[in-house]
Design a protein that fits this description.
The chain has about 600 residues and is an alpha+beta fold. The protein is built from eleven helices and 29 strands. A hairpin with a 3-residue loop joins β15 and β16 (about 385-390). α6 packs across α7 (about 240-270).
């Protein structure tokens, strides 16, 4: 007979095994259950003045305004003069030249792959992460949002888009069709993400793409502004395009409506008190309109080109109605949000930004002066708490002279010399060689199935022309010779077979061209056998005439399967037969790795 002790131990073991089995059936506790949710809303080309909060009576933004009422608002918060640099600085906490971002298209918008993002930081702390909107920091994985810490992505990776009503978008690398007006659609997807993750900590990034052109907005918003008399104007009113201004304001009110939907959902889910909501813009306004009398707009390193609202709401943690007078910048958001959430920053590289938590929660009485640099296209200005030295060396007292009308450089030579030396150091240490780009476009990364290769990133040879001088949403046309070709400086990440989908347009009279895709010794040929000749469109939704390319509804056809060998080389698309007057119009290639 077994001894009583052995019987007892077996019984205890059986009981513990039963308990372990029962515990295994229970849902796992979230890793960061005590951490706040985070919702970051970033708008595109909306200036500081495009909010009723800041005194603009031309429009009403009540939902955005409540973020300042119920949280903190920054008086002087600075971003970059244009889109992709601001996004890079928010994502990395570092000045954009450090991360390899030097342009807004054709690969220059990509962040170097050794940079860690704010999504990496929050994901490492147990958060589920999602981004919904305009990415603008790289398309091919791992430059893609899914390779930069975001579990979920819906939107477009380019710098601007050609149609805002049910356009082609992507969901985690797969091309999908949008549903309705793009800002409404992006908000819907973000709300679904919030609903699905309400019981675990989430980080939701909503980089909206309006009021960037093309100037498109749903009828209810446009109807309010179409004939509206505007009471407030730019400091140079004769330079205003009133139609453009009216549509921009209508687009801002649409943004506000969608912000209201997000706030209502947080309330309905009873998680508003546990959620930080952050709102800011990526640069100055994309046109001449009221902006508080400041000098400069989008593209400028003057105050009006880089000043953005920053609103942060976190009930019971950030005092309601708090007005922050200390200067801050996009580089500060990563360290600040991580500090507020009580998590470690994932990046091991030194940050240029600093945590503003103590200012936000009201635990600081003195704050050291600092310098914040603004840069674009080799133009650099520097801002202190009181002064701005502009890109040509003029000095302005921004408290006494917010419009930058009176140059004080001769009256204050010592300060001018000190700030000039700081700019020289910035250029020497941060700008030197930052735009010498030798990075290839990555194809077929082993950790990702799909690779988009758009016309935007290609180089045209021969007669081929872009549909517009702005590459981001362009396509190639005028392909009229067998000597013409399109190339990409590429690197294949994984040897294997890839299905190739070609997005094209071709009239019936020109059907029949044979095209060849090559990469080093790898080749694939396919013939265009079906006519597809859609008209240019987009203007049917435009409220004012655009500068960017109009679009077409391109057709997707299978070109076949190509075997690619890992390594660097030139990806080339060229015709070997052309029975008509042209080969085709080209929009993009989609390469999908075929599983073994």
């Amino acid at each position: 007979m077994p001894k009583p002790t052995a019987i007892f131990l077996r019984a205890v073991g059986s009981f513990l095994a039963l308990c372990a089995g029962l515990l295994a059936l229970l849902p796992a506790a979230p890793v960061a259950a005590d951490k706040p949710n985070v919702v970051v809303i970033l708008t595109d080309d909306q200036g500081w003045g495009d909010l009723s909060l800041n005194g603009n009576t031309n429009l009403s933004t009540p939902n955005i305004d409540t973020l300042a009422r119920d949280g903190a608002s920054f008086d002087r918060f600075f971003v970059c003069p244009v889109c992709s640099p601001t996004r890079a600085e928010f994502l990395t906490g570092r000045y954009h030249p450090r991360s390899g971002v030097y342009s807004t298209s054709a690969g220059g918008e990509r962040m170097n792959l050794d940079e860690m993002t704010i999504a990496d930081t929050f994901k490492a702390a147990g958060y589920v992460t999602g981004a919904f909107g305009k990415w603008h920091n790289g398309m091919q994985y791992p430059y893609h949002p899914n390779g930069r810490g975001f579990d979920e992505y819906y939107g477009f990776c380019s710098g601007h888009w050609g149609d805002y009503f049910s356009p082609p978008l992507e969901h985690n690398g797969k091309i999908v069709q949008g549903d309705g007006f793009i800002i409404d659609d992006l908000t819907n997807k973000a709300i679904t993400f919030i609903e699905e993750n309400k019981d675990r900590p989430f980080f939701a990034y909503l980089p909206f793409n309006t009021p960037h052109s093309p100037m498109q907005v749903p009828d209810p918003f446009w109807d309010k502004f179409q004939d509206k008399e505007l009471a407030m104007h730019n400091r140079e009113p004769k330079r205003e395009d009133i139609g453009h201004v009216r549509c921009a304001l209508a687009m801002c009110e649409n943004i506000d409506w969608n912000v209201g939907r997000i706030l209502e959902k947080l309330d309905a889910l009873e998680i508003a008190d546990d959620t930080m909501v952050i709102y800011f813009c990526d640069n100055g306004p994309n046109g001449f309109r009221w902006n508080g009398g400041m000098k400069g707009r989008k593209g400028s390193t003057d105050e009006g080109g880089v000043r953005s609202p920053l609103l942060i709401r976190w009930p019971e943690h950030i005092p309601a109605g708090r007005k922050v007078t200390q200067i801050g910048a996009a580089i500060d958001l990563l360290p600040t949000l991580a500090d507020l959430a009580g998590i470690e920053v994932a990046s091991k590289k030194p940050l240029d930004g600093i945590s503003l938590k103590s200012i936000l929660v009201g635990r600081v009485t003195r704050w050291p002066d600092r310098m914040i640099f603004s840069h674009w296209n080799k133009r650099v200005s520097v801002r202190t708490q009181q002064y701005r030295l502009d890109h040509v060396g003029k000095l302005f007292d921004m408290q006494a002279d917010p419009g930058q009308d009176n140059d004080l450089s001769k009256q204050q030579p010592d300060l001018t010399k000190r700030l000039t030396a700081a700019v020289a150091k910035y250029k020497r240490e941060i700008l030197a060689g930052y735009d010498n780009d030798t990075r290839p476009f990555l194809v077929g990364h082993p950790d990702y199935q799909d690779t988009q290769i758009p016309a935007r990133d290609g180089t045209a040879h021969g007669n081929i022309q872009r549909s517009n001088r702005f590459p981001n949403c362009s396509f190639f046309t005028n392909w009229t010779s067998l000597d013409d070709k399109i190339t990409w400086d590429a690197e294949v990440g994984a040897t294997g077979d890839y299905e190739v989908e070609l997005h094209y347009a071709c009239p019936a009279a020109d059907v029949g061209s044979m095209v060849e895709l090559t990469f080093n010794d790898c080749k694939l040929r396919g013939r265009i056998t079906a006519a597809h000749d859609p008209p240019l469109r987009g203007d049917e939704h435009d409220r004012v005439k655009r500068q960017e390319s109009y679009v077409k509804d391109f057709k997707a056809m299978s070109l076949g399967t190509i075997h690619l060998e890992q390594g660097k080389g030139t990806l080339s698309l060229q015709a070997t037969e052309m029975p008509g007057l042209q080969v085709m119009e080209f929009r993009l290639l989609m390469l999908t790795r075929v599983d073994d």
